[in-house]
Amino acid sequence: MQTGPREIRTPFRPIPLEVPEGMKPNEFFNSTENLNDLVNNNGLLRNPEHLLLYRKALGHSTEFDTSIIYNTSEIILDPLGRPVRRTQVPENVKHVWNRMNQIIIDYVMEKYPDPAKHLILAGEASLDATWPLTSPGVPSIRMLHNHFMVFDKEELANSKMADKDNPNLTDGGQHSLFERYMHDVYHRFFATLDMQILTPVRDGSSQLALTGYPCGLPSWEVKGGLESLKEIRFWHEYDMVLKGFIDFYRTFFSQVSSRNAPMLKDTYFPDQVENILLFNNSFLKAAKKVRDRCITDAKYANDLRWKPAFKQLIYRNDAGNLVVTISQNSIGNAITELLGVVVKRYPDAEAYEKKEPALLQKLLELRNRLVDADLGEPIATPYWSA
After folding, report:
1. At what angle do helices 281-296 and 177-191 cross, to 10 degrees?
2. N or C terminus: fewer CB in 10 A for the chain?
């Protein structure tokens, strides 16, 4: 079997919404009107914490595909004021969110027990204004949401090979600025975080044999597997990975922006930032390289994502173990591409409807488990009852 990223084609039923004249599609699909469509036509469950479980109308997979969105569209009208990563979510909301995550991951592991047959992943990418300020749609920030997906590995294996130069394949071994120029200091920085459940993967077992991804990225095996996801300590460590990434990202781009900039006051790990990053020659040399290019290359500077842009995943490796990884994000890519899966969605209502009954059966079964755990109330739509 040839190893390499795969391009999978996924049908969807066209959404019956018209984009108002004068709006870009990405602006409209981030709007409150579109959020109403998520609730009324695709909503599965919601709770008082404003967390909405919904069917992905424009999905990545027809095997299993759902999301939880922190729907603040009506309680925070300023798009720039909405939480866009877990570190900005109120503690009571995050507590419920973590329980929902744990139950959903447990469900898909139960339904798809064989790692040789199915790829399971859960995670999110940054949704904040990390694009250039002049790009269309920047003010229309979407609400933070998690994805939960399952892919059939036989279908992936039979799919065509993806173009390895696809800019969305922001894998550590190819495109990541951190990995290309700061590999050692990047991994050293993460190694100092106080992990008890997350164990660093050093033997390459985080890579999927089918795609060869992810490669070069810091990865951690979840010691204790599914049982550990029932412990709040795991979710603290999962957040610790994100906080460490944010510290690294913000510190680096502060040095790119201003030579010898002081340490940012609101860092999560100030000792590590001071001792590992701000006194590391490779780290500061890379910042100079980027800064010098920004001064002379207007397009390069405009394309930079100056604010923390990330993808963070929990997925099952070939050995059946749960693994956590995090990567720098590029403009426009999906979290599936971190694992070497490029999804090409195409409108085909007939093809989608053939897959829909089996997909909905699983989503509604999952909904029942969340209701039983007092994590929300079911939603009725034209396609299913409450």
Report:
1. 150
2. N
* Residue 89 included in any domain: yes
Within a domain: residue 47?
Answer: yes
43 in Cβ contact with 365 (< 8 Å): no
Burial of 188 (0-12, 13-18, 19+ CB in 10 A): middle
- Which residues share a beta bridge with 346? 11
* pLDDT per residue as tens digits for the range 342-376: 999 999 999 999 999 999 999 999 999 999 999 99
383 within a domain of the structure (yes/no): no
Query: Into how many domains does the chain fold?
Result: 1
pTM for the whole structure: 0.93
* Beta-carbon count within 10 A of 259 CB: 10
In a domain, residue 148? The reply is: yes
Would you call 357 exposed, middle or buried from its count of C-beta atoms within 10 A (0-12, 13-18, 19+)? exposed
Which of 102, 115, 202, 174 shows the shortest CA–CA distance to 150?
115
Tell me the percentage of the chain whose pLDDT exceeds 70.
91
